[in-house]
Amino acid sequence: MRSASDLWKINLGYNKFYIIIKGVVTLADNYQEAKAAYKKALEKVVQKNPERFEQFTTVGGLPLNVLYSQDDIEVINYLNDINFPGSYPFTRGVQANMYRGRFWTMRQYAGFATAEESNARYRYLLERGTTGLSVAFDLPTQIGYDTDHPMAQGECGKVGVAIDSLADMEILFDKIPLDKVSTSMTINAPAGVLLAMYVCVGEKQGVKPEQLSGTIQNDILKEYIARGTYIFPPKASMRLVTDIFDFCGKNVPKWNTISISGYHIREAGSTAVQEVAFTLADGIAYVEAAKITGQDPNVFGERLSFFFNAHNDLLEEVAKYRAARRLWAKIMKERFGVTNPKAQMLRFHTQTAGCTLTAQQPENNVIRVTLQALASVLGGTQSLHTNSMDEALALPTEKSVEIALRTQQVIAYESGVTNTVDPFAGSYVVESLTNEIEQGAADYINKIDDMGGMLKAIDAGYPQKEIQDSAYNYQRAIETDQAIVVGVNKFQTKESSAGRKLLRVDSSVGERQIKKLHEMKSSRDNVAVKEYLEDIRKAARNESENLMPMILNAVRVYATEGEICGVLREEFGEYVENIVL
Amino acid sequence: MPELLKKVLNGDVRGIARAISMIEDQIIKTGTSEAETLMQDIYPHTGKAWVIGVTGSPGAGKSTLTDKLIEQYRAEGKKVGVIAIDPSSPFSGGAILADRIRMQRHTDDPHVYIRSMGTRGSLGGVSNGTREAALILDASGKDVVIIETVGVGQSEVEIMKIADTVCVILVPGLGDDIQIMKAGIMEIADVFVVNKADKEGADKVARETRAMLDLLKDKSWIPPVVLTIAEDGSGLPELVSKIELHKKFMNDTKAGLLRIEKRTNTEVETLLLSRLSGRVEQLWGTYKSDKIKDLLLRKTNPYAVVEEIITNL
Amino acid sequence: MPDKIRVVIAKPGLDGHDRGAKVIARALRDAGMEVIYTGLRQTPEQIVATAIQEDADAVGISILSGAHHFYFEKVIGLLKEKGAEDIIVFGGGVIPEEDVPDLINMGAGAVFGPGTPTGTTIEWLKEAVETNK
Q1: B98: contact with A, CB 8 A cutoff
Q2: What b-and-e string marks burial along B126-135, b requiring 16 or more CB atoms within 10 Å of the CB?
Q3: Which of the residues A135, A467, A483, A534 could staple to A270 if both were Cys, CB 3.0 to 4.6 A apart?
Q4: What is the mean pLDDT of residues C30-35?
Q5: Which of 3.40.718.10, 3.20.20.240, 3.40.50.300, 3.40.50.10330 would CATH assign to domain A78-479?
Q6: Tell me: the pLDDT tens digits for A118-169?
Q7: Of B20, B96, B98, the CB nearest to C55
Q8: Higher pLDDT, A94 or A18
Q9: Mean per-residue pLDDT for A225-254?
């Protein structure tokens, strides 16, 4: 019998297939023979010791075979389907050398209470090496209500920072030079208003709009599908989105005008395939809407960015990012005839999956976040937010935010995975999953096309229903122990999470914010405010007019977000969700 | 006067809600249930509200249209009751009742009462207690009661036994023209509504519906066809005026009164049938042990047994 | 046959995270209950009016925005005001364990934290409705 090291040498020497049966090494004449022998051996093993599941699947529900090998990827044509990084269809990444030049942007989503507290948190993060800001707004701000609106009661500062007017925005970015940082703002229905405020803060700092860099989420379709912070009906909303595309193209050229988001779709319970499918279908709807207004996808296509979730299944997630890049490139090139490579590239931000965080044994979340962050880096993300371990309980504390940031830094500087591009390329299983996810997503997109596009599909409740079914199935899987969540349905301990240090936003924050708002309103030029609000109303009635310049004028004289959105609510009406349960 | 009846007649919301639950939970069969006593007490106080049925395919916009109808009637100062029916799961018997989402803005209006009901195994587009729930709302002082049927595309003919005016909602692009013929919807509609009138094909649906109305045998009332866009309220005032017109026809013409009489007739027959079917089990139960062996041995026959039971009634 | 359990599932306030609310709605439906689902952005007044009109046995509120103190207090207070304190109030969402005793003191029947199996909620609800009769 040969020893293991002999085998290794011989293997190198002859490049032949070896099979081991009952400890005896035998030479196989060809791949097929070796495979047949393997299958036989496998059968015996399984007969003796049944496997843990009858059918293994990914977290996203794709069936997973015991083994992938060369015949699983025979269909792949390297140059057409994978190609070199930085080249169409960008499967391996959008740059030639990826993280060997510059790491991804480490961007921690943060914001709570008032502008003062959040400003302090941003400066804390910048001091510790975060490279981009990401602003979380509270719910009244996201839904276009001032803090003194009855619907805003109890919500001020809870899930993000409260911004009522330019006055708050000035405080939020106090001593943060807008020409030096890039800022991402999670704002959708009132995106134009917050962007206008950012531009005005820049003006006051002496920074020109063309120097500003950052992103507004501005993805209203996923609000209808999954996230729920919509205001206006789809038609008016799509107009606001395309107005922003056009305005930024002309005035704020370095700004990412939209972050087409699968993150929330996944959080709502979708599978990985659905995440890719519905996100790209949303993307198609935006491109089509902008094209109708006469904009060139070769131009605005460069400023489209994406936002994905990083879930637990490492292999599936890596494949997901690669599949999304490839499919989007094909859509832009083949469907929209885009020739500019920069407009074919899918660039994306990632956030680790909030829905995987557990309130039980919260320290385990650090490990989950590490695996998820690793997947996004192996998948070639352009920027990353890592969740903090206590977020299933409340907003994160400074300590837990720091650990989350350090997680990214350890992956970047210590793990070594950043030193070569797309390390999983050529992996039989990852390439197979990449194909499968792309195909699954393409099937969904075809179906949505058949329904008349994403707006019609949303109207029929189609993506909503698909996501809810997946969410319910996943919950069933956990409750029947088909899926294991450590600390939740296995390896539970009796420890209580009570007494843990949590970040609290008390109700005095709302009172302080309302006081500030009322003081500001009594000191501004109210005549000018009224005039500019009427201009917005007029522009709202004229579909061919871009609303952004009017919004900018109103913001500059300290019209509040609630006042501006109030006028638009009167003109456009409000959306009522479409429930299909 | 029983406490619950008093509450219903006073328009007390909890009282109304309780009364409807009682009806839903105690299926009227035996004649001795509290529910049936309550209905006997309530009936003399009914007949004031106009009951409007809203029916149509899924996705036709029934809930949105109902929401806009509430708005119209509230603007006239009328008190409105709404019964929205969703299907119950045949497997678990449970249901998700979500129609009121589109009407929630009226929820805290004290003169609007909205109630969701599950079909609980009943077919035909309404639930077993829908008729009684409408009567309870009528007695509680509502001027208008709107019933939104299940709308799962099955034939929803039960609504015509309950509603004074049945509005059938059609929309372009759903193949409703064929639907009308199939489901016998022609016979139940008092008003046709072509909703989503801003969509392509709306005019065609309206035209084809009108053309089919020529086939009606009873020409005393030709259902009008109203175009609406429920989303923005277009066409709603016209719809309301057509419903009013139908109300006039029903109340003020001989043909209309005949229809009301026919409906009352059906109502009694239906109740009688349901009560009798409840008694059948009981009756047969008293004979069963005697007769079954003889039947199996062919010593007697089912016809004779039934004859004997009936004779001894 | 026992009377059917009717439950209102509501999302108060502006929070749009309705995955949990929808999952529990379906689970309750599959357990044979009638679930009145009111959708997003409900005011406490709307939730209470809905519960009363629907003759609900219980109201489940789902909150992930951290505003749970505010909404539990409001909903329970309004139910009392309307003489409907017999309607059980329960909830779930992102609610720290140490806040639960407070909410129970206000009058909440139970608060289910993240990771609670739907079966636990169903069993609790059946029992709570039974003892409430």
Answers
A1: yes
A2: bbbbbbbbbb
A3: A467
A4: 97
A5: 3.20.20.240
A6: 999 999 989 988 878 999 999 999 999 999 999 999 899 998 999 999 999 9
A7: B20
A8: A94
A9: 96
Chain B residue numbers touching C45 (CB-CB < 8 A):
107-108
Rounded-to-integer distance, Cα A171 and Cα A116, Å: 6
Q: Which of residues 561-580 of A touch B (CB under 8 A)?
A: 573, 576-577, 579
C-alpha span between A326 and A330 (Å, rounded): 6
pLDDT at residue A14 greater than cutoff 70: no
Tell me which residue of A119, A111, A171 sits closest to A395, measured CA to CA: A111
CA distance C76 to chain A (A): 15
- What whole-number distance in Å separates Cα of residue B4 and Cα of residue B19? 7
pLDDT tens for C84-94 read 999 999 999 98
pLDDT per residue as tens digits for the range A570-579: 999 999 888 7
Contacts of A556 (CB under 8 A, 6+ apart): A166, A196, A200
C33 chain-B contacts, CB cut-off 8 A: 94
Edge-first strand listing for the sheet containing A255-256:
A255-256, A213-216, A182-185, A132-135, A105-110, A383-385, A348-352, A304-310, A258-261
What is the interface pTM, i.e. ipTM, of the complex? 0.95
| pLDDT in the model for residue A111 | 86
- List all residues 6 or more positions away from A250 whose beta carbon is below 8 Å from its beta carbon: none
Amino acid at A485: V
Phi, psi angles (nearest 5°) of residue A538: -65, -45
Contact call for residues A100 and A108 (beta carbons, < 8 A): no
DSSP strand pairing (A24-28 vs A17-21): antiparallel
Q: Which residues have CB under 8 Å from B127's CB, separation 6+?
A: B24, B85, B117, B118, B119, B120
Which residues are CB-contacts of A326 (< 8 A; sequence separation ≥ 6)? A81, A89, A90, A91, A434, A438
For A364-421, the pLDDT digits (tens) are 999 999 999 999 999 999 999 999 999 888 888 889 999 999 999 999 999 999 999 9
Domain boundaries, chain A: 78-479
Taking an 8 Å cut-off on Cβ atoms, the answer to whether A233 and B231 are in contact is: yes
Length of chain C (residues): 133
- C49 vs A494 pLDDT, higher one: C49
**Phi/psi at A107 (nearest 5 deg)?**
-125, 110
- The token duo for B117 is 């009901």
Interval B108-121: pLDDT, tens: 999 999 999 999 98
d(CA A434, CA A276): 11
C25 contacts on B by Cβ (under 8 Å): 96
pLDDT (0 to 100) of residue B261: 95
DSSP state letters, A466-528 = HHHHHHHHHHHHHHTTSS--BTTTBS------TT---B---THHHHHHHHHHHHHHHHS-HHH
For residue A183, CA distances in Å to A120, A210, A213, A304, C16 come to: 15, 14, 7, 15, 24
Distance of CA A488 to CAs C24, C115, C116, Å? 17, 6, 8
A24 touches chain B (CB under 8 A): no
Does B22 reach chain C within 8 Å, measured CB to CB? Answer: no
Structure confidence by residue, pLDDT tens digits, A17-37: 666 656 666 667 788 888 998
Of C43, C45, C54, the CB nearest to B17: C54
**Whole-angstrom distance, CA of residue A112 vs CA of residue A159:** 6
Q: How many whole angstroms separate alpha carbon A262 and alpha carbon A441? A: 12
Looking at the structure, give the CATH architecture of the domain made up of residues C6-132.
3-Layer(aba) Sandwich (3.40)
Q: What's the pLDDT at A129? A: 84
- Which residues of C, range 44-73, sit inside 8 Å of B by Cβ? 45-46, 49-50, 52-55
The tokens for A442 are: 């393409």
H or E segment at A242? helix A234-251
